[in-house]
From TrEMBL:
The lineage of its organism: Bacteria, Bacillati, Actinomycetota, Actinomycetes, Micrococcales. It comes from Brachybacterium epidermidis. Keywords: Cell membrane, Electron transport, Heme, Iron, Membrane, Metal-binding, Repeat, Respiratory chain, Translocase, Transmembrane, Transmembrane helix, Transport. PANTHER family: CBB3-TYPE CYTOCHROME C OXIDASE SUBUNIT FIXP (PTHR33751), CYTOCHROME BC1 COMPLEX CYTOCHROME C SUBUNIT (PTHR33751:SF13). It is a multi-pass membrane protein. This is Cytochrome bc1 complex cytochrome c subunit. It is an enzyme of class 7 (translocase). It comes from the Bacteria. Residues 45-130, 144-222 form the Cytochrome c domain. InterPro entries: bc1_cytC-su, Cyt_c-like_dom, Cyt_c-like_dom_sf, Cytochrome_c_Oxidase_Subunit. The keyword Transmembrane helix applies. The keyword Lipid metabolism does not apply. The cytochrome bc1 complex is composed of a cytochrome b (QcrB), the Rieske iron-sulfur protein (QcrA) and a diheme cytochrome c (QcrC) subunit.
Length: 264
């Protein structure tokens, strides 16, 4: 103990304590951080093929180095793709949103222009530019809890996509698209990357298990379908009220005309 006490005042003591604190902090962070749902790594051949695809199909808007481009008025033509990760590319290209057919308020879903291998190679190239969200592993795309997923969806997603997942209108020509009938990995990637106007739900806000539960809820919602009656687009009480009042007012007007005609 005396030898230890004597070394407390050694010039290197403070440095040793600082290093131990950093090691302990790093260990705790590694132990408690959310698990990353990474699917795979990419080879240099994938990256090279992806770069060729990028230069031929994407560089016109996003720049030759994926740094993004603006027009002479300062409006963004194509955002920077540095740091968006493979997940963003797999979602945008896999759902046909990119490459865009024409500029507009929002990229619409359409049949993809690239096959799965080309999409994978393009994702590999963008992922090589800087760290970013990766394509999720298969284990995070099935087997979730739909009850917990439904609660998460209603709290975080229903205000735009509505509780039935039918989508809805936003401002300035933008919209929240329907979320039924999608591939599970695209649902996961949308939550992870926040495309268009959607907020980003990374692992700090929704864990990989939470995202898996949301996917399970949407799968169940698609299987169960409408509980009965006319869905009216599943847009909620506004359309339902308008529909009901239209029928009621039509009936009342018809009754008034009929009664007036009988009185004459």
């Amino acid at each position: 103990m005396k030898a230890l006490a004597a070394r407390r005042h050694h010039p290197m003591a403070l440095l040793v304590i600082l290093l131990l604190a950093l090691v302990a902090t790093g260990g705790l962070y590694a132990a408690f951080q959310p698990r990353v749902a990474q699917a795979e790594s990419y080879s240099q051949e994938d990256i090279a093929a992806g770069e060729a695809l990028f230069l031929a199909n994407c560089a016109t808007c996003h720049g030759r180095n994926a740094e993004g481009q603006t027009d002479p008025d300062g409006q963004t033509v194509g955002p920077s793709l540095i740091g968006v990760g493979a997940a963003a590319v797999d979602f945008q290209v896999g759902t046909g949103r990119m490459p865009m057919q024409r500029s507009g308020a929002q990229a619409a879903r359409k049949p993809p222009q690239m096959n799965e291998e080309q999409t994978r190679q393009l994702a590999a190239y963008v992922a090589s530019l800087a760290p970013g969200p990766s394509v999720p592993a298969e284990e995070y795309l099935s087997g979730g809890d739909p009850v917990n997923g439904g609660e998460i969806f209603r709290i975080n997603c229903a205000m735009c996509h509505n509780a039935a997942g039918a989508g809805g209108a936003l401002t300035r020509g933008k919209y929240a698209p329907p979320v039924l009938g999608l591939e599970p990995k695209h649902v996961y990637e949308a939550m992870e990357t926040g495309p268009q106007n959607m907020p980003v739900f990374n692992d700090a806000s929704l864990t990989a298990e939470d995202k898996r539960d949301v996917i399970a809820y949407l799968d169940q919602l698609e299987d169960v379908g409408s509980p009965g009656g006319i869905s009216l687009g599943s847009l909620g009480p506004v359309t339902e009220g308008l529909y009901a009042w239209t029928i009621i007012l039509t009936l009342l007007t018809g009754c008034a005309v009929w009664l007036g005609a009988k009185a004459k």
